[in-house]
Amino acid sequence: MIGKKMLVACAAILSLSVAAAADEVKGEGRTISVVDFGAKPDDGKDDTKALRRAAEYCRENAGTTLVMPAGEYRLRDAEAERLENEVMSGKMGQHPEGTIFKPYYPYVSGLNFDGSVNTTIEARGAVLMCEGWMEPLSIVGSTYFTVRGLTIDYKRKPFSEGRVCAIDAETFTVQFGQERTLTMDTPFPRVMLWDNEISGIYRNPFYFARKEVLPGNKVIFKGKLPDYMMDAPVATPHSFHFRPAILVWRSTNTKIENVTIHSQCGMGIVGFDSKDVTIKGLSIIPAEGYTFSTNTDATHFACCEGTISFDGCMFRGQGDDATNVHGYYHDIAAVEDGWATLVLKAPTYTHIQVADVPRVGDKMEIVRISTLAVEDVAEVTDVQHEGEQVDVKVKLNCDLPADYDKYYLFNISKLPRLEFRRSTVWGNLARCVLAKTRGVVIEDNIFRGSTGTAIHVGAESVWKEGTHAQDLLIQRNIIVNCGLGAGCQYGASGIAVVIGAPDTENTKLHDGVKILDNTIIGTGENTCGISVRNARNIEVKRNRVEGCGLTIETKSVENLVVE
Predict the structure, then answer these.
(1) Nearest to 218 by CA among 234, 195, 237, 239
(2) By three-state DSSP, how is residue 216 classified?
(3) Which pTM value belongs to this model?
């Protein structure tokens, strides 16, 4: 017979064992260094195998803290370098995105943390210098994953930089650096310039401009520039979208803290089908000696849940929005035996090139295509999707309209809240914050020199990205010299709450919007500081607007209060 004291002792030991196991899963007490696997910073050697062994250890051991001592680490991959060389040699043509950014196109994952549990990367001062076009950090199927202090950059930038050295009536000439030899086969899908007069991106980039490549990396582009753009910095990304620097996919509770991304052959961070992403102190900014950063969006989140939160971040010189948060409008291609076939007709499909697959129990709005008005809500009762299929079949708990081809299905169960606070966006193509979700707070930020309207709230049917806003607060932001070119909404410099649909007459979709205490300083050419359309229950109070024709422009608005 076991005595009472023995039982108490056994219980205590069991309790300690359980607590120890819990602590281990939380990531307490298990710390390793990449040095233990053979990676040494600043020694000039290839660290790829060692870093991948360290990532494998994290995948296999829950609760690991992986330390990367300060310094530069080489991450190179032969397949990634092959892709880069093929793009740069012109094998993919002048528009490589059309080849390399397709559903399920193969790519290289630099460091793969697939399935990691309670993993932390402590990398203050560590630089991951990539060689070859890849996805440097893949956070897939992970829970409680934190990356802190890491810098991601490329030895050979996925763009070329130079300066305007001549301006003629119909052309301008750029002297590029000597990082690589440029030829007529090198893809130049876009030419971006920095405009010192507004301290931001020049209002209109040049797409697929006719060119003549001269010896010494001088390139003459067809296009008109004003004389004041002489000596302006220029960047030509050699492709638009490809893989992001950091992928967050099918993951929960991801934290990205004090991370820096200097360049990427695509977006900086892409989140997809994930829940709760917290981003603090992120810097997507040019490397030292450069003016431009990522080829496309700094960050982009689609089909997520929970909260996407930004705080104290810095964005500069990226080739598209600082962030874009949305879900997808799916066309209904067929209805047969109770199954609806969903097709995503977005121009570039999803931004990680895998299908957006609903789950049983998800709620889907039935949305009229012409107006983007919601006409009913259905629940998913069954799903069919396998492997690399691009289309998805669903069963719903209700019948679809007989003219189903006139409707989208939109999954509101994959629609996160967005918090964007105390951050700076300085000089980028398109918008600073693009919000197509519900439950949004954008406050205490500084936006300067973006070609588009600084804050754009609204669905875009061309991109199949939605939805309209509910419960939106925009307050205490400072917006300067925005909205002169690409991405400008109805001439608005500062804020646009609008709908992009074939028919916007008299529809009122946005509901519950507060625009308070913002300062908007236009360039003198903006039509308005604020544009509000297709909305109800709007408060626009105590905003200071200068350098714009109108303070506020409205259309199809109900219950608007302006002070």
Answers:
(1) 234
(2) coil
(3) 0.94
